[in-house]
Design goal:
alpha+beta, 5 helices, 10 strands
Length: 252
């Protein structure tokens, strides 16, 4: 049986007629560091620590917030100490760099997010563990927080691949990834068991070759001119990646 899978375009060949990838002058990226502060106009991403526990517990852990935790590996903390344990893990885990999302207007933490699966040698990093309180959801600040992380990964640290992964049934996360300019790469079936259930994981990414397009779209959307006097967007964010990575610039 012949399996017809698409090949990326513009590939080279060995003298033996074998396809090989484009040449890359690559020396590795700089790993994100704990203690990094990322500052925007509307939000700051602060190194997470015990000073954020009370704010996060108040913003994310009410009974009405149960739905916010459905697709995370943690259950909603019922006690402050449970939120403190999540924060401590994020602050001390050597495999991630976790931030508290702090709106400048209030100065109180209202969410968190992390760099994960950090492979500086290969230039790949994932944004994950994202949880935003209701006051941040669908807001300018939420988009700015993701833009700050993207800029830091590509422009400051020199990564060449930026990943987003989610439960394939997590429709809001899938929509957010596409809106931000990520390209859907596929579905890993039976990838994870969590909270006593199966998770098929959808993979999305932005590469360094796609980043200039995504950055322009984010910059245009976040510009003050895109918002009216009531803070409403004038035009929607439209990074508009192709749906199929085999047709994107990623393989060219």
């Amino acid at each position: 049986m012949t399996v017809n899978l698409p090949f990326p375009s513009a590939q080279r060949q060995t003298p033996h007629g074998q396809r090989i990838g484009r040449a890359v002058d690559w020396h590795g990226a700089a790993a994100p560091a704990k203690g990094t502060l990322l500052e925007g106009k509307g939000v700051r991403l602060e190194p997470i620590g015990p000073q954020h526990v009370d704010d996060l517990y108040a913003a994310l852990c009410r009974e009405s917030d149960d739905a916010l935790w459905t697709y995370l590996f943690w259950d909603r903390p019922r006690e402050r100490d449970e939120m403190a344990a999540i924060v401590e893990h994020g602050a001390t885990d050597p495999g991630q760099v976790m931030f508290a999302v702090v709106p400048v207007e209030t100065g109180t933490a209202a969410g968190f997010c992390s760099f994960m699966r950090i492979d500086a040698a290969m230039g790949s990093v994932e944004v994950g563990g994202i949880l935003l309180g209701r006051q941040l959801q669908r807001s300018r600040g939420a988009t700015e927080a993701m833009a700050l992380m993207l800029r830091h990964a590509f422009d400051d640290l020199g990564f060449r691949r930026y990943e987003w992964k989610c439960d394939s049934l997590n429709a809001p996360s899938r929509r957010a990834a596409v809106r931000l300019g990520f390209i859907w790469e596929g579905r890993f079936r039976n990838a994870v068991v969590y909270k006593g259930r199966n998770r098929d994981t959808d993979w999305f990414s932005i590469t360094d070759r796609e980043w200039p397009r995504v950055r322009r779209a984010l910059d245009d959307w976040l510009d003050d001119a895109n918002f009216d006097d009531h803070g409403r967007q004038r035009t929607r964010l439209a990074a508009r990646p192709p749906a199929d990575p085999a047709t994107s610039s990623q393989g060219q």
